[in-house]
Amino acid sequence: MDMSNYMERSTALVEALPYIQTYYGKTVIIKYGGNAMISEELRRAVISDIILLNLVGVRVVMVHGGGPEIGHMLKLIGKESKFVDGLRYTDEETMDIVQQVLCGKVNKGLVSTINNLGGKAIGLCGLDGALFQAKKLDDKYGLVGKIVKVCPQVVTDCLAAGYIPVVSTVALGIDNDTAYNINADTAAAELAVALGAEKLILLTDVRGVLQDPKDESTLIRQIRLAEVPGLIGSGIISGGMIPKIDCCVNALEHGVQRTHILDGRIPHSILTEMLSHKGVGTMIWA
User: Fold this and answer.
1) Is the pLDDT of residue 117 over 70?
2) Residue 96 confidence (pLDDT)
3) Side-chain half-sphere exposure of 29, counting CA atoms within 13 A
4) Of all residues in the chain, what percent carry a pLDDT higher than 70?
5) Are the C-beta atoms of residues 49 and 271 closer than 8 Å to each other?
6) Which pTM was predicted?
7) Residues whose CB is less than 8 angstroms from the CB of residue 170 and which lie 6 or more positions away in sequence, other chains included
8) What angle do helix axes 241-253 and 184-195 make, rounded to 10 degrees?
9) Angle 40-55/107-116 helices, nearest 10 degrees?
10) What average pLDDT does range 53-74 have in this prediction?
11) Are 15 and 186 in contact (CB under 8 A)?
12) What does the alpha-carbon distance between residue 102 and residue 79 come to, in Å, rounded to a whole number?
C-alpha cells in the first residue's frame, strides 16, 4: 500500500472521530430490508457497519422485514401473494407463514450472521415482552395491524446488556387473539419514538429522495420537516416514498432528532452517512 492510501485511511478515521463522540451512548434504529437483505455481499456490509457502531458505543437496534422470503415461502406452498395499497394481504394462513419466516428463519439468520462476524446479537419479535401491541388496521388488509402501544423494556434490557437487538415486525393483537403483520418501516419509526432514539435510518433500494426519479444524480441530501408537504404536493415525493417519509415525519414530530433514507445497495452506506461529512442519502430533520 502506498503512502496516499495510508493517508486516505487516516483522514477517514480522523473525520469519523467527532461523529463517534456525538453518537456514543445514543440509540440508533436501523430498518433493514430490500436488496441489502438479498445480496450476501451487501448483507455482510450492513452487518459489519452495525457491529462497528456497536463496538464504538452506539446503541444499535436492527428492525427487519422479509418480504421476498415471505413471498418465496408462499410460492412454495402454492399460495399467491396479494397486495392491497402496497401492504401484503394477510389471511390466517399467510399470517402463519409471516410469523414462521420473520420470527424464525430471517430473524435467527441475522442473529447468527452478526454473532459469527464478531458481534453480540439477540433476536426478538413484537410478541416478546408485548413489545408491539396492535389492533387490526382495516378488514381489507386482513391480519395487518396498526401499532397502538410500544413497550420497549425488553429492547432496553438487551441494549443495557451490550446486545444488538434484532427485531422482527410481528405484533401482539390486543383486540383479537391473534398476531398481526406490521409494516417494518412503521414499526421501526414507532420503536425509535419509544426509545427516544437519536436517529432512524431506513434502508431502501433507491438513493433517497430524488428531484428527478429517473436521475440518481438529483439526490436531495437534506429536507427540513417543514418542506415535506410542498415536496409531496409538487410530486417530487410520490409513490412508495410517501409512506417512508410519513414514518420519518412521525418520528421527528415525536422527538427523534434525525431520520435518514439510505440506499442499501451501496456497501457501507450506514457508516458513510453516520461517520463522514458528506453522507450518501437523504436526511430529513426538524
Assistant:
1) yes
2) 97
3) 32
4) 98
5) yes
6) 0.95
7) 98, 99, 102, 103, 125, 126, 127, 132, 179, 180, 181, 182
8) 10
9) 60
10) 95
11) no
12) 17
CB atoms within 10 A of CB 240: 10
Tell me how far apart the alpha carbons of residues 198 and 58 are, in angstroms, rounded to a whole number.
10
As a whole number of angstroms, the distance between CA 238 and CA 143 comes to 26
Is the CB of residue 219 less than 8 Å from the CB of residue 207?
A: yes
C-alpha cell at 108: 435467527
Three-state secondary structure readout of the chain? CCHHHHHHHHHHHHHHHHHHHHHCCCEEEEEECCHHHHCHHHHHHHHHHHHHHHHCCCEEEEEECCHHHHHHHHHHCCCCCCEECCEECECHHHHHHHHHHHHHHHHHHHHHHHHHCCCCEEEEEECHHHCEEEEECCHHHECEEEEEEECCHHHHHHHHCCCEEEEEEEEEECCCCCEEECCHHHHHHHHHHHHCCCEEEEEECCCCCECCCCCHHHECCEEEHHHHHHHHHCCCCCCCHHHHHHHHHHHHHCCCCEEEEEECCCCCHHHHHHHCCCCCCEEEEC
Q: What is the mean pLDDT of the chain?
A: 94
Q: What is the pLDDT of residues 128-172, one digit of tens each?
A: 999 999 999 999 999 999 999 999 999 999 999 999 999 999 999
Give the CA angle between residues 161, 273, 215 to the nearest 5°. Answer: 140
Dump pLDDT digits (tens) for 24-39.
999 999 999 876 787 8
